[in-house]
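Moderator note: this is an archived Q&A kept for reference. The question asked for a predicted structure of one protein chain; the sequence and the answer are reproduced below.
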Amino acid sequence: MPGFPDGIPGIEFANRLRQQAERFGVELLQAQDVTRIYSHDNYHCIFTGGGSEYSARALLIATGSRYRRLHVPGEDKYLGAGIHFCATCDGPFYKGKHIAVIGGGNSAAEESLLLCKFAHKVTILVRGGEFTASKIIQEKALADPKIEVRWHMEVQEFVGADAKLNKLVLCNNQTGEFSELNVDGAFIFIGQTPNTRFLAGSPLVLNEWGFVATGHDLIHAGFTTGHEPEVLATSVPGIFAAGDVREGSTKQVASAAGEGATAALLIREYLKTV
C-alpha cells in the first residue's frame, strides 16, 4: 500500500480505515452476513443472516474477492512465509532467488515475466500440457531465458524449514512420477473467486466467473440501457460496485480505494436524481 514502505499488517490498516470512517459518522455493523438483495421502487433492500433488513436509495458493493487455493498440505502453514499471490507486492523480496509460479493462464505468464525482474530463475508449473494464456504472453514467457516451464505438474505439498518454505513436492499427472523442487518462494496464480454468492438470483449482471459487470462491460455482456453506463454502475440503477469484486478491476489495494472514492462521487450525483 503506498505510504507504508515497510508494509503494514492488514488488521492494523483495517482498524485505521475504521477509525477514519467513524470520525465522519459512518455506522459500521460487524459480523453481518448479507444473504440477498432486491430492489423496490427507488430503494435497494439488503437481508442479513441474522434476519435484519436494511434499505437505502443507493448501494455500493465492495465485497472483494479471494484467491483460489490449492488446498494441499503446507499451504496454510507457509502463507506469507514463502507462498504469495501478488508479484507486485512480494516479488522484490526474491531478488536473485529461485521462484516457482503455479498456474497456466494469463496471470501466471504475465506475473512470471514481472518476477523475472527480481529472480534469477522462475519455474512455471502448469497442470496441463499448454498455456491457456494469450498467444503473445505465451510467446514472451517461453522465450525468456530466466523462465523454465514444466508441464503436467501438480503441487502435492509445500515443505519448509525454520518457518520458511524451501521445497515443493510435485507429481506429473501423466506419468504419476513424484519429484521435488527446491525454491525460495512460490506464487499461486490460479484465479480469484469473487465474494458474490449473495447476488445469486439478483438482477445484477455478473460475468462467467461471478464478478460484477459495470460500465462498458455491461454492453459487452449484451445489457443495453440506451446510454453509456457510468464506469462503476451496475445493471441496476442506484447499485454500484468497486474494487476486486468488479469485473476488470486491477486487484490492487490502492486502485480499489480509488474506485471506492470514485463510486462515492457517482452515488452523490445519482442521489440528486431520485
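Archived answer notes: The helical segments are 10-23, 87-90, 106-115, 135-143, 216-220, 253-271.
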